[in-house]
Amino acid sequence: MPKLSAIKHVFFDLDHTLWDFDSNSKKSYEFIFNKNNILLDINTFITIYEPINHAYWKLYRDEKINKTDLKHARLKDSFDALNYSISDALINRLADEYLDNLPNYNTLFDGCINLLSYLKSKYVLHIITNGFSEIQTAKLKSAKIFHFFDHVITSESVLVKKPNPKIFFHALNKANAYTYNSIMIGDNLEADIYGAKNIGMRTIYCNFTNNALNDKVIMVTQLSQIKEYL
User: Fold this and answer.
1) What is the pTM of this model?
2) N or C: which end of the chain has fewer CB within 10 A?
């Protein structure tokens, strides 16, 4: 496999790309449910919650809801779908406790540390994330990968979210990088891949769930395969 040429800067998404969001999120919910005596089977809750959360994050990316609405509505809709009676006050407390505890869990995808160590000696590494600023930095530090990255660009710091081109141009400017010498690596086709491609960046799609694709993109199914291109 020929290596991609002229790359100097590698921009990563964080959640679902390097940091195993689903595993860590489940552990955080399990902890706060036990703490607050929420009498729900965690696996049943997660089955209902994950597609609801995904839908609300798309609304958040599209600037149709704000952070506060996202935090509350994804839980309220999940509890409603499970016919679980709970007050709005407790939902808000759970929403805050979930985020507070989320960085305490730091499972990374297989090969993450090995890949970052390999890339760090060859490229300048950065993060571009739609996640909440205070949480993303805590995740990186807890997982002991913060030191790999020169810049961590969050959507909250730019006031727009991927795939808005403004966040990519802001990241390039901050890193003193250019579209022709940069690559974006992420798990979300719309936000990470098409967002970066639309401004001329090259991309690698982390298709860890084996989604069927009609588009021609560079794709990997595990992190170690990125070494074939970089």
Assistant:
1) 0.95
2) N
Q: How far is CA 202 from CA 28, 134, 179, in A?
A: 34, 28, 8
Cα–Cα distance, 194 to 187 (Å, whole number): 11
CB 32 within 8 A of CB 98: yes
Instruction: Write out pLDDT tens, residues 33-58.
Output: 999 999 999 999 999 999 999 999 99
The Cβ of residue 11 has, within 10 Å, a number of other Cβ atoms equal to 27
Q: Which residues of 87-119 are buried (b: 16+ CB within 10 A; e: fewer)?
A: eeeebeebbebbbebbbebbebbebbeebbeeb
User: Which domains does the chain show, CATH number per domain?
Assistant: 9-19+106-228 (3.40.50.1000), 22-104 (1.10.150.240)
Give the 3-state secondary structure of residue 185. strand
Type of residue found at 40: L
